[in-house]
Request: fold
Amino acid sequence: MQVVIVKNAEQAGQAVATLIAAQIYTKPDCVLGLATGSTPIPAYQTLIGMHKEGLLDFSKVKSYNLDEYVGISYEHECSYHRFMQDELFNHVNIKPENTHVPDGNAEDIPSTAAAYDAAIVAAGGIDLQLLGIGHNGHIGFNEPGSEFIYGCHKVELSQSTIEANTRFFDSEADVPRAAVTLGIGSIMNARQVVLVATGEGKAEAVRRSLEEDVSPMCQASILRTHPNAIFVLDEAAASKLSR
Ligand code: GLP
Reply:
């Protein structure tokens, strides 16, 4: 477990983009696990810049996103399908058929979720899994609870997540109440995990993840047991760490 602390969100984005670029240089046909939310955006912007300068080729890269809301269309401006198009895929040369986002609108979510896990395994597993973190310590949409859930599954969102994500929607009532998320098993099976957290609002979740007991009440805490996990933090997100 490594913790890298940089000055601000922009530098965190550059650090994360460097790790992702190194993965693509090392293995051009790598499998990336990608994340949404506002925190990864600076990293995606840096990767887009590298691609536009001719430094980074996504033509063989495959990607599997962490999660998607249940019950909003892929075209909805807050859907994670749309987010990935807008923030990364439309600006680099990744092949559309190589990008994957869980299906939140499937009629039979348990079987499409199981197929999503199987597709990741068939692709050779995730080489680098990028993660943000929720204020309650969630990763993907794995909410605090009594257990770590292994596979891709449907989850009811906690009130704190609904409130945190209201900023992206017109009102709290518009925020979906459920999502499909990769499970903790799929995340832990990634060969490398990079969690990025920036801003004071994430400081308590970061402290609980790194300094309290490993517990499903703070799902990110399990990353401490991963053999190759890196937390990339800015000074504000690291501000509550005691060591
Ligand atoms: C959402 C996503 C997470 C993300 C988290 C934090 O709930 N499902 O994957 O890490 O929000 O988002 P942000 O980076 O916008 O704070």
